[in-house]
């Protein structure tokens, strides 16, 4: 009986945990779908509908993030800021369509970053980011200052789309170092010269490549596998023990019947 009680206790713990996890996953899925729908509506120019979806997202996000504490303070702050910028873009008449879509895309990627465990959507932005930066570098090699400034502005605009997301997925030290290099090139662009900037640009290009390389690596926490192994081991050991007790009891009963018959 004691063995059966242990099994029942373990199963109750396992399935109660599974139920909570399933409910949490359902909420995360709804948040993900709302953010995705808001972006699609924005691309089609259905701004009022996109605004309503964004407001629904804010309600659910506040419920899960603040009330149930499913997100860290940094995640709450970053996604809230991205949501604010996206909502402002949807309601402003002073912003062009391209910039509006970029603001909502930045929000979409940030919301995905807090939900996705592996391969976040922003990692798919590698080609647009690197192509935009290649244009900056090529303009610098040509020594064309006007073209350089134009391409630099485009790169900064494209990079801003993933900036909230990388603050969620990448260690803050690396993000701050990358942002400081970008800010330096932007701030001192008026002193542009091919010889002076090429070393800075090559260093920044390497950092951008590493940004996407690092996020594509398998960063599964080994402790997760250890916990799973231990939990599975406990259940298997308990079942084995109960089976052995049952087998031993049956053998003893058979032996007693044999002794009585003799």
TrEMBL record:
Residues 1-22 form the signal peptide. InterPro entries: Spore_YpjB. Keywords: Membrane, Signal, Transmembrane, Transmembrane helix. It comes from the Bacteria. The chain crosses the membrane at residues 224-244. NCBIfam families: spore_ypjB. This is Sporulation protein YpjB. It comes from Lederbergia wuyishanensis. The lineage of its organism: Bacteria, Bacillati, Bacillota, Bacilli, Bacillales.
């Amino acid at each position: 009986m004691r063995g059966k009680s242990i099994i029942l206790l373990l199963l109750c713990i396992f399935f109660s945990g599974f139920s909570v996890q399933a409910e949490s996953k359902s909420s995360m899925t709804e948040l993900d779908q709302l953010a995705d729908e808001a972006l699609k509506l924005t691309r089609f120019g259905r701004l009022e509908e996109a605004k309503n979806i964004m407001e629904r997202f804010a309600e659910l996000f506040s419920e899960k993030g603040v009330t149930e504490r499913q997100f860290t303070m940094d995640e709450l702050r970053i996604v809230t800021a991205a949501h604010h910028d996206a909502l402002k873009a949807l309601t402003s008449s002073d912003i062009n369509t391209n910039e509006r879509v970029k603001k909502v895309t930045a929000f979409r990627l940030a919301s995905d970053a807090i939900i996705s465990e592996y391969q976040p959507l922003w990692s798919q932005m590698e080609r647009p980011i690197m192509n935009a930066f290649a244009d900056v570098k090529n303009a610098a090699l040509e020594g064309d200052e006007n073209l350089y400034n134009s391409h630099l502005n485009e790169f900064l605009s494209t990079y801003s789309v993933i900036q909230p997301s990388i603050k969620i997925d990448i260690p803050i030290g690396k993000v701050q170092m990358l942002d400081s290099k970008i800010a330096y090139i932007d701030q001192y662009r008026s002193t542009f010269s091919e010889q002076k900037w090429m070393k800075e640009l090559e260093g920044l290009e390497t950092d951008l490549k590493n940004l996407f390389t690092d996020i594509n690596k398998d960063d599964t926490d080994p402790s997760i596998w250890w916990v799973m192994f231990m939990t599975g081991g406990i259940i298997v050991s308990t079942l084995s023990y109960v089976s052995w007790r049952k087998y031993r009891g049956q053998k003893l009963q058979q032996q007693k019947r044999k002794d009585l018959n003799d």
